[in-house]
Fold this protein.
Amino acid sequence: MSLMIALLLFAQQIPTPNVGPFGAAVSPDGATLLVPEFGSFNPYVIGGTVAVIDTATDSVTGTIAVGMQPEDVAFTPDGAYAFVTNAGGATVSVIDMATQIVVATTPCGEPFATFLYGVAIDPDGKLAYVNTTGGNWDGSEENIFILDADPASPTFADVVDTVEISGGFTRGGFRAQGDRYVVARGFADNDFSASPRVSQFHNGVLVSETIVVPAVGGFHGAEDLVVTPNGKYAYLPVWNFTEEGSDEVFVIDLGENKVIDIVRLGSGDNAQHGITSDPSGLLVLATNFFAGSVSVIFTPTNTVIDTIPVESLPNEVVFTPDGLKAYVTNQGSNSVSVIPFAPSLDLVVSLAQTAVVDPSVQKALDKKIAKALEDDTHLAALVKFIKEKSAEGKIVIGLYAKDTNPPAEDLNNVDVGLGGIDTYTQP
Amino acid sequence: MRLTKAHIAVAALAALVAGAFALKPPPTPPVRREAEPLRPMLVSLSELHTAAQTDRTKVDAYLSARARAVETADVDALIVASRDEDLAVRVMAIHLLGAVGGERAMAALMHAYRAGDAQAAAQAVAAIEGADAVPALLEILSAGPAANIAAEALGRRGDARAVEPLIAALRDETDPSRACHAAGALARLGGPAARLALEQSAAGATHVSIRRSAQQASTRFSEEPR
């Protein structure tokens, strides 16, 4: 595990071939970024493609024709297939990544009615969960479609189950080795004044919910959530459908089903859209849709350590598996922002950790930090933060440098996203 | 989702949509008319759909307005609107024609398909239930654009007329995506000819995705003999 805090010099922009980049997913091997291109409303354009981006060169290498108004995408764990939700067409396109051919198109509900949204595939690669926020013409509801994602199965790509519960389901993820599907739910009981919820499903059955209560605003929703890599916590951004909003991200303990922290972003925006975690779980990034920026949350303290400008209407944000880059889809400017996360900071963090353990190296640390700070204010803010916490006698947990290679069992003890700095003692 | 009191927030917009119906002229014999009578409704419906895409509190209002549009549909006016210069109007008209169905709607949808609105028209045709849609779906399957939608829909209808065209699509590797969808459709349709075609493609297709899709479909076939 490595910690790589953003050493942001500037975010590179990749123009997308077509309009309305919406969701995003990086292949498990980190080589390919897929971006569904939804289209736009003014001018009215019905999107129907997925952009293929080579992450080595950060360039578009092709487009894949899918269904109408594609919104979200997820890879199978082996990267062999990608599932794309087509919101307008109410279908799921299944792409064979080896050839970049759509090999199956599965109807999920009714065109221009069911409003397909996010898709997530369980860690075993057996099932794909397709969330919806609409309903069917006949008034029935199928809020989550569960598709067979196993290419070895006779029913591959077919709908094998549905979940019918009131409300709108947007994006979700998994915890407990895939035993729990965690998803953002708005408008429970079809009440638009209802607060957003984090819902957990087991085998398609709702087993628990945590309700969040935004500080201000009228109608609230949640467009996304992320489950931390250790499966213990969910970070839920709040979307406000009214003028006022709370500019908050809620931290939910998924085991206890309770809100343990609220991160005030201070972004000046009342509508957070996408959210993701870096592979270490130490950073959570949330897009501020109307402000055109990304808030960087440091999870051991649940503190915003940076707000990074991107382009217009940033929708989704995803990390590469190595944590070296984050990609942000800018729905309003038809581009993808690339945010580099510099490995050079590993050194500083490693030294900071060492300094906590052994104060005698503090002086040397200061010199090395000072050198690292010469041309980067973002880094300065982070290191200032670390030093302040160190000065308070608190140990910054889980700050492993890439080259320290802590054993896996140690990582299990790192309580990322606790909502406050805790102690952690290396064996 | 059900209609709830929370629709107050969007009631005004929904009322605009509903109000457009009051302007609709009474039914007359099928003569060509201008799209204007339906245009305000279609524009409003499209705008409401747009709003529902970005503001989920408006989904129910949109669905209600759309249901009302289907119930009171004027097919002639929808046909004219399906050829409107405004894409948003065309797309909404096409979808309503698919929901309404019928011979004239089918003909208009195929016109829209050939005129370039292939995805929307193919989806609308696929939404029309019954055997009447099969010839149109077969045309879409052979034409190319949005053939995947046609193949998938044909596979679910169980109409024997689709078997041979789907076998031809499976064997035509110039459109590998269509061939893959044809494989899945043939597995649903079943029968000796479908089985043989799938087995042959599973063993001999040049394109790896087609071969893999045929293999997967053959697995389904053996699991679900028909």
Summary: Residues 1-35 of chain B have pLDDT under 50 and may be disordered. Residues 39-54 of chain B form the longest helix (16 residues).
